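Need fresh eyes. Consider my entry:
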Amino acid sequence: MPVGLFRVCLLVITAIVNHPLFFPKENGTVPENTEEIIQKMKEREESLRLEQLRLEQEIADQEATQKALEKAAVVVEESKEERVRWDIWTALSMVIFLLIELWRQDFQEGNWQDIGGEEDDMAVLGKAFKGVAFPDKAVLASFYEKRILGTTGDMARMREMVEGFADDLLEALRSVCNRDADMEVEDCMGVGSMYENWRVRKPFVCDLIVPFAPPEPYCFRCQTWCSGDAFPPDEQGYGTIKVCRANEDTTGCICDKTKLGEDMLCLLHSQVSSTRPSSEMEDLLCFKNTQYLDADQVMKWFQIAVTKAWNRISHKYEFDLSFSLLDSPGALKIKFKSGKSIAFNLTPVVQYENSDVYFISHFPRSSLAADIPSSTHWFLTFAVYERRFIQLVSKTLPANACHVSCLQILSFLHGKQCSLTGPSGLTNYHLKTVLLHLLQTRPSQDWAPEKLEARLQDMLKFLEKCLHEKKLYHFFIGNGKVPAELGFPIIFQRAEPLNLFRPFVLRRDIYRKMVDTFHEMLRNMSALINEYTVHIPLAHTNGIRKEPL
């Protein structure tokens, strides 16, 4: 009870003490403080609102930046995917292109000369043969016997006479040359139509090549277009010949490129061999300020040496010797007192390594190398291997095979046509190349003498195909099917096939002239053959029908 009363009293006292009427003075300022507080609260609220706006703006900017970064990342990702897709298509296109190129090369290596037995392909050609009556077997046989067969004896006698005189002339040439300073001349070799027994047109001209080598201690280092060096397309079939010392490194010593001074010597080279004056290289028939053999210098030296040699032995012979053609430096002519003459070509060549491929300085009558890039570029001739191939194949053919007869007839027709309409880009070498291809692809029995007409048609159709495609490949270069018995250098078999008609692709005027000459030859073929054919009795031609090609 007392405790309850105490609590009531304490509550009453507390209420009285806290009544506002007891503090009039302090409570008089309450309204003023309230307005100030309200004002501060409004200012604080305004600052907080501004801060909130600023923060909201920053957040919005950050969100915009984030969205931009995300969008850029998406664009980059899409571009990467697009680039990957493009790279895949590019790589795929390159693979397809390489496969096509490999297939083309395989096709060229395997099928560019596989025309034997393709009668269906031959049948679709023949556009130029429409309306052309091909001479029958009897006419061809009579023509060959009357016009061509009688020339073989004359060729044999002329070859024997020219070879004997050339050997004597070269022996005299060696005697007038300085063995320590001049080029060393070897024995000559006969090449070309006269030595392959298919030349028919007169005057007969023997082609002889004369290998030569530099004096000691020098040697020739040959580079070809297919030896790994960079040669432009128009220089395919050519090479260069560098004159070096036998013990000289092909890369050259630093003493040749650096001035060592008068009191310093190279430990690898002597004082004599360390310098190489330009006059010394010019004495070695090199192009000015180079080590490369100059074809023009070689021909000048050879002409002077031949003239000296002839002056030494001219008293032994009852005829005169002279250079017959200005554009063929090796063209010589023997003139007898009776007025008769014999022409032959004596051309210096350089042997390629240990093979029978030769660098030739000038082609007789400029039939194959009309536009030589420079006098330091030498054309390669495979004439020795061509002669050997014909001899090798002839051993497998039937007796009295018609392969040489085909080439003789075609060469005669072409020569007659050129005498009527003028020369064209088509040469006898192109005709021989056609025969070489057919000899390799046709079975041996197809060259029996009674099949002369059919094989002559094959040669004409093959030539027409080559003219139409502007492609006639060199027989040896790029041909992996050359018989191993020939010992032909493998480097040329692995090379890209050389198109002999490539110069005519850009020379449309020459190409058109060549095609026109071929067509005119076909149209005039019967007339040209009949002109040199004896009369054939009607009984011989009964039952033989002239069929157009």
Q: What stands out?
A: The domain at 122-248+280-534 is CATH 3.30.460.90 (Beta Polymerase; domain 2).
